[in-house]
Amino acid sequence: MSTQKKRNFQIEAFKHRVVVDPKYAEKTWKILEHAIHEIYNHNASGLSFEELYSAPKRNFQIGPLKRQIVMDPNYADKTWKILEEGIHEIYNCNISGLSFEELYRNAYNMVLHKFGEKLYSGLVTTMTHHLEVISKSIEAAQGGLFLEELNRKWADHNKALQMIRDILMYMDRTFIPSTHKTPVHELGLNLWRDNIIHSAKIQTRLQDTLLDLVLRERTGEVINRGLMRNVIKMLMDLGSSVYQDDFEKHFLEVSADFYRAESQQFIECCDCGEYLKKAERRLNEEMERVSHYLDAKSEAKITSVVEKEMVESHMQRLVHMENSGLINMLVDDKYEDLGRMYSLFRRVPNGLFIIRDVMTSHIRSTGKQLVTDPERLKDPVDFVQRLLDEKDKNDKIINLAFNNDKTFQNALNSSFEYFINLNSRSPEFISLFVDDKLRKGLKGVSEEDVEIVLDKVMMLFRYLQEKDVFEKYYKQHLAKRLLSGKTVSDDAERSLIVKLKTECGYQFTSKLEGMFTDMKTSEDTMQGFYASSFAETGDGPTLAVQVLTTGSWPTQPSATCNLPAEILGVCEKFRGYYLGTHTGRRLSWQTNMGTADLKATFGRGQKHELNVSTHQMCALMLFNNADRLSYKEIEQATEIPASDLKRCLQSMACVKGKNILRKEPMSKDIAEDDAFFVNDKFSSKFYKVKIGTVVAQRESEPENQETRQRVEEDRKPQIEAAIVRIMKSRRVLDHNNIVAEVTKQLQSRFLPSPVLIKKRIESLIEREFLERDKVDRKLYRYLA
């Protein structure tokens, strides 16, 4: 290289010298100096700044060349030989004797003197020759050395390519863009692709070797991931089409076959939980494989293959698998397996829909069985508690396993609404559950826990379609709690009313709030009574009265009951006081709702204070004048309704520890031919003994029918009011739209049947609120 011959040419001297005025500088400076003085003397108005800027230019001339450049006609061939030899040395890793600066200058000169085409074509030929030699070397490598040789030669080629690109940089920047040829680096990659990767003896072998290594890794063998990463990166560097056509496409096909066979094997020998674990592990392995040595864009494709073959193809069988499918997981609270199923199924089309559909069917089936089981209906409190337990169980599953998915929560709510309303007594039972909790079930419970229970009750309440039926029962139960003073906490009572008010509006709770107002007013009334002259009763009984507003409290049938003479006198005094202080009012005694404290003396002089209901008091007072009374005699003397009287006598004669009466014959139930007498042997370790009435936990069928009829009667004016409101604003409306809008307006309280709505429309037509259109009989008009 040091003896290379340089290109011979000569440049002749200029024919004429440059002629310059010898006083040019002095003359020019005189002009500029004068101007500076004028500027300092503030006399710049006469100056031409443009003239000063372009002061007299220097005059010179350049004559033409005497002779042209003389160029060596073999210059291009000689220079290319030098560059070709340099490229050979680079590929042979023998660069210590090369002068890259000299090589760059030679390449530069070739391009400058229009020999770029010769340089470019020579480069292609030389690189192709070397790659053909490299190809034979790679083909000769046996077994595991094949990839290693390929990787090593690829690294050498990249280094050589970098050096060649540096030498030919000027060609890369000028000649190649102007002639639209492939840049040097890209050319080197393309030649490697065509001569090495797409070589007949290498292409298939490389593909098979890579796929075999992936298979071996899948079956548990440890492979050289670093080598795999380098080879795969080589394919990616050669272009996405090379990676996809020469590897990825076949990789995905082979993977699909592998997982199709493996999933079939697993599904036959594993239960659902085990299968899902294996599928999840395979999915994670593929994602890890991508992160280690595949193109990141392959992740979505290979995971899609695993999902299709291992999950989507077997979804129905997995969900319905006997003894281990979805329903078994739900029943056994297998949160981990359910979570795994959710995370896998959400990856495939309709996966979550299948889980949700099966889960919904299961919940509806379980719930329907729960609300229609005659045994469960015997205990309303247990019935509601089981509903709450079922809701808690499914809420926990959705929260822990299904990522709190709103669609699953909606499906759960829909299922509960479906089966709770299958039982027409659900509103009554939920009210009884509240009654039980607010009477005794929440004693000693923290405020936070009370709120949790009330929130759960409200959750069930929202599912009810007949909220007005719940209101009817709740009002009855609340009245009994308030009048008997058995409520655990006024705060808890008011908290529930606030929740109901928030849910259903002021109209729903106005009467409930009125009941609390009456209780407070009654306290003030009694203070006034005992401060008045009416209260002078001597040794007579003491009276405590709650005055209830008829509209606010549940309507109670005014059962006739003959009060003892002593009590009757005090009651008349209170009536006189109350009607004297309030004009235009009327009092009617509700003896079925009161209580009394009696002092009693039993055999051996044992004295106790008995807390009994008003009806029980009436019955017990009869025994002051008789030792033995038959059921018929008690009934005639007190005129207490039979159902109430039987409960009173049952609680006083049949409850162990509270049996202040005895009856013949002895049995658990009261018959009309029974006889009663005082139990002289009655004893208790307490001085005060509370004799509770045997509470009817749930209404009998006739009572239930009666309540239903009252509810139906209450609904009629509500439906009519809704119809009138709608027609007043719309003026003219067809039948189907009226039914739809009335249902929409009233669904927060109850779901009116179309038949009932039609009857109310007919009633309004009869009373001339509406009229039918004379042409279209299904069209109604509002009459102002």
Automatic annotation (TrEMBL):
InterPro entries: Cullin, Cullin-like_AB, Cullin_homology, Cullin_homology_sf, Cullin_N, Cullin_neddylation_domain, Cullin_repeat-like_dom_sf, WH-like_DNA-bd_sf. Gene3D superfamilies: Cullin Repeats (1.20.1310.10), Cullin, Chain C, Domain 2 (3.30.230.130), Winged helix-like DNA-binding domain superfamily/Winged helix DNA-binding domain (1.10.10.10). Residues 425-653 form the Cullin family profile domain. The keyword Ubl conjugation applies. One of its GO terms (cellular component) is cullin-RING ubiquitin ligase complex. Belongs to the cullin family. This is Cullin family profile domain-containing protein.
